[in-house]
Amino acid sequence: MYQKEFMMEAIALSQEWMATGEGGPFGSVVVKDGRIVGKGRNRVTVDNDPTAHAEVVAIRDACRNLNTFQLNGCEVYCSCEPCPMCMGAIYWARPDRIYYAAERNDAANVGFDDSFIYEEIDLEPSKRTIPAYQYDRLTAVNVLGRWKTSEVKIDY
Q: How far apart are CA 65 and CA 142, in angstroms?
């Protein structure tokens, strides 16, 4: 079955960088029409980029290769259940489905616990560990209103 082949590629990517110490144990591939169109390994520490999770790297690679900002008709394979950030990126990319191997609890057992992010999202913004405060809403809403009627916008 083709899902196994693509999942094994995602897991192999997770192993490659882990073996060198240049990234965490996560890999991801994006597949369209039965072929891999994007690959990603966790690059957080090597790139000094907290957003360089395997899924985000794979999405960026696939979008670049397909010359699009949406991944309709694609599948995303992840060596582990995506974290909240990656899940958000995947949803914005709009693939048809996601396959994952290890669960988030498996990742938490080895030090990659993102449960606190899920808990933080449910809190009032000003009560979070990193508090957030709203400022100058009306000015920003005005810009959004101009965007709604802009003749140069690209819907996404």
A: 36
Residues 6+ apart with CB under 8 A from 7: 77, 79, 99, 101
By the 10 Å C-beta count (0-12 exposed, 13-18 middle, 19+ buried), 133 is classed as exposed
Q: What is the pLDDT of residues 94-151, one digit of tens each?
A: 999 999 999 999 999 999 989 999 899 999 999 999 999 999 999 999 999 998 899 8
Quick one: how many helices (H) and strands (E) in the chain?
A: 7, 4
Sheet holding 97-102, edge to edge: 35-41, 27-32, 74-80, 97-102
3-state secondary structure of 24: coil
Residues marked as catalytic: 55
